[in-house]
Specification:
Layout: H1 2-5, H2 7-10, H3 14-40, E1 47-53, E2 56-58, E3 63-70, H4 88-93, E4 94-103, E5 106-108, E6 111-113, E7 116-124, E8 128-132, E9 136-139, E10 142-145, E11 149-154
Parallel strand pairs: 2-11
Antiparallel strand pairs: 1-3, 3-7, 4-7, 5-6, 8-11, 9-10
């Protein structure tokens, strides 16, 4: 329209029109930022954690070892870690049974994660203190390791054992 009527025709509209243009432009930019924000956020670092609960058991009990891989939205299909490979003297003294895996959908502060947890039952064959070595998983070209854990097995009954305090 400016080329049809000339500059003087629209000059009295310009002072009131500019703030509105700037307002709408800012509104569009903020909306684009909010919509594109999930793609701009870097992926969280992948973490591998292991927990043993309870850490003190009697000879006739078993404990649960849980290994959790977390940090990204979709981890894909990953094979469970093989615990019996490696330190063979430890696994001779403990019977290992794979209990299964589980996924959990988490939404925390707008960040979605789906951690993968593998559960194992450990049943001792003799009393003593056992060191569960770091467990490793290869994921996306990197090797992730857990911390080592101590498992104490007493030869008495389960009534002598105090529960773990958290």
């Amino acid at each position: 329209m400016l080329w049809l009527f000339g500059w003087r025709y629209f000059s009295h509209y310009i002072p009131a029109f500019y703030p509105r243009i700037i307002y709408y432009l800012c509104l569009v930019l903020v909306n684009l930022f909010v919509l594109l924000r999930p793609t701009l956020v870097q992926a969280q670092a992948v973490q591998l954690e292991a927990t043993v609960s309870p850490q003190t058991i009697s000879l006739n009990q078993s404990t649960t070892l849980k290994i959790t891989l977390s940090g990204e939205t979709q981890l894909g299909k990953i094979q469970p870690p093989q615990l019996t490979s490696g330190n063979s003297s430890l696994w001779r003294d403990l019977s290992v049974s794979y209990l299964g895996s589980s996924n959990q959908y988490r939404l925390v502060n707008g960040q979605v994660s789906v951690p993968m947890t593998w559960s194992y039952a450990l049943k001792p064959k003799k009393a003593g203190t056992f060191t569960i070595p770091p467990i490793s998983i290869n994921y996306d070209g990197q090797t992730l390791r857990t911390e080592k854990w101590l498992l104490k097995v007493v030869s008495g009954s389960s009534a002598q054992i105090k529960p773990d305090t958290y």
